[in-house]
Amino acid sequence: MVNLVKRFNPDKRRRPKVDDYFGDWKWREGLAETMVPLVGKLYRNEVNVLMYGRPLLNCSAVEIMKLHRFVREVEGNELSEIETFPVLEHISKMKLLPCEIDLGEIVSYLLENEKLDPLKYVENLLSENIRTKRSYPLRPKDIVLFGFGRIGRILTRLLIADTGGGAKWRLRAIVVRGSGNPDDLIKRASLLRHDSVHGEFAGTIRVNKENHSLIVNGNEVFVIPSNDPSKIDYKKFGIKKATIVDNTGIWRDEEGLKQHLKNPSVEKVILTAPAKGKIKNIVYGINDEKAKPEEKILAAASCTTNAIAPVLKLVDDNFKIVNGHIETVHAYTNDQNLIDNYHSSDRRGRSAALNLVITDTGAAKAVSEVLPDLKGKLTANAIRVPTPNVSLAILNLTLKRGVGVEELNDCFRKAAFRSKLRETIDYTNSLDAVSSDFYSNEFAVVYDSQATISNFNSVTIYCWYDNEYGYTKQVVRLLKKVIGANLTRYPKQ
Fold first, then answer.
1. pLDDT for 239-298, tens place per residue?
2. What percent of the chain has pLDDT over 90?
3. What are the strands of the beta sheet with 489-490, ordered from one edge?
4. What is the pLDDT of residue 360?
5. 303: annotated active-site residue
6. Is residue 297 part of a domain?
7. Are residues 78 and 167 located together in one domain of the fold?
8. At the top level of its lineage, which domain of life is listed (predicted)?
9. 312 and 426 in one domain?
10. CA-to-CA distance for 368 and 370, rounded, in angstroms?
């Protein structure tokens, strides 16, 4: 690693001893600017570059620098653009098959093992993924969203952003309720373009009234008005063997969701809500091995289940949970009323914007389905609060043995960055973390290391989760698995 540092740092400065802070910043800023087109080039060739799980695509130079800073804070190393740029440059020259490459993990490992030749290490790491021939289907998988509410619009953003070169899948259509008035397209385009919580859409959206479609970053997405999923003529739009992501919540049982499968153009269905009956609820990263190819209908469970299941699994695997209670402090949702009005559920009829609302949650029961070993050990309740997004799960757990805060934090830090749970668990050590810090966080859950409490074998764990964006990202991960579009991530865990 030292030779590469000298090559790309002509002043021979070692970062811990920098005196010229401005000069050091400008030098690293220049390297970060040079990284931007390399990341874009790799993306168009179906190679996604990450920095400890966070995508570098569409990041500005300063945002790339901030991600380097994040790694330095959580790992306690001196990772900088001076070390990562030459590695990225070398990767960009390799002919790779579609994959994900965590640049931060690779270079952090090299910093810990300075005797390794960085470029040879990278070549050996990726040797199995060298492109020798086209190894993925010429026709990408067709994706159709059934519904265009909060989750539907975030799904659209994520799927478009993750299209890459278009070889794996394409978002082909969005099914909406209504008569198909062309003027509705303008409103729907505006809702996709502007979001009060997650900000402006990263790209361009054009309305094609003649085709009744939206052109989103070059992807033509047909907007199909229909209330009957079995009667939609998908063939008219060239859609075949589609996977439907039903985000309406209208049907949650097999009988209702099977209506999609009556359509000859539909192959599989994913529900973005907890399912009823025999349909399997899947939390990606925890029990997604149950998402077998023969399964025609699967559910992505709830946002809360996706958030707490990884935490509970990690704690139970390492310390064994005897029993516990989970309290979720949940942002209000469309299910509640802005002002007091009738609601079928107790308390939820009261104004969401003015009250803390105690309500029930099926999280404990849902977790026992995903993690059978915890059946009967947990209780759960929820409080809806007047914030538009990001929720907090407070887990009060009794463990089989005593454990201190430092041991718990170390366990979660390693899991977040060096384990198979790295896609689902994020980690923060910020002393000033508040809910708005986690808007648009792509992980299922964020472990708050500064809030952890331990009293021998009784622990309290605080976990943030973006109940919209983080959950929807989990849906996308499950979708990729279902359609066979999951990318191998390097380094492997």
1. 999 999 999 989 999 999 999 999 999 999 999 999 999 999 999 999 999 999 999 999
2. 84
3. 54-55, 47-51, 99-102, 489-490
4. 86
5. yes
6. no
7. no
8. Bacteria
9. yes
10. 5
* pLDDT single digits (tens) 80-104: 999 999 999 999 999 999 999 999 9
Per the structure, the count of domains in the chain is 3
Q: Is 345 exposed, middle or buried (0-12, 13-18, 19+ CB in 10 A)?
A: exposed
CA dihedral over 99, 100, 103, 106, signed as positive or negative? negative
Nearest to 44 by CA among 169, 221, 163, 202: 163
Is 136 a residue whose pLDDT tops 60?
Answer: no
Q: Which of 59, 303, 411, 463 is catalytic?
A: 303
Unique residue bearing structure tokens 């539907």: 152
**Residue 336 shares a structural domain with residue 453:** yes
Q: What values do phi and psi take at 92, rounded to 5?
A: -65, -20
Q: Which pLDDT score, from 0 to 100, does residue 131 have?
A: 81
pLDDT tier at 13 (50, 70, 90 boundaries)? Answer: very low
CA dihedral for 421, 423, 425, 427, sign (positive or negative): positive
Question: Both tokens of residue 459?
Answer: 């622990």
Over the range 353-383, which residues count as b (16 or more CB within 10 Å of their CB) and which as e? eebebebebebbebbebbbeebeebbebebb
Question: Does the pLDDT at position 14 exceed 50?
Answer: no
Q: Which two tokens stand for residue 198?
A: 């997650």
Per the rule left: phi > 0, alpha: psi between -120 and 50, beta: everything else, 456 is: left
User: Do residues 227 and 177 touch, judged by C-beta distance below 8 A?
Assistant: yes
CATH number at residue 370: 3.30.360.10
Asked whether residue 333 is assigned to any structural domain, the reply reads: yes
- Say yes or no: 69 and 148 in one domain: no
Question: Is 332 within the bounds of a domain?
Answer: yes
d(CA 407, CA 421): 18
Whether residues 206 and 74 fall in one domain: no
Same domain for 122 and 151, yes or no, is no
Same domain, 206 and 158: yes
Question: Same domain, yes or no, for 44 and 153?
Answer: no
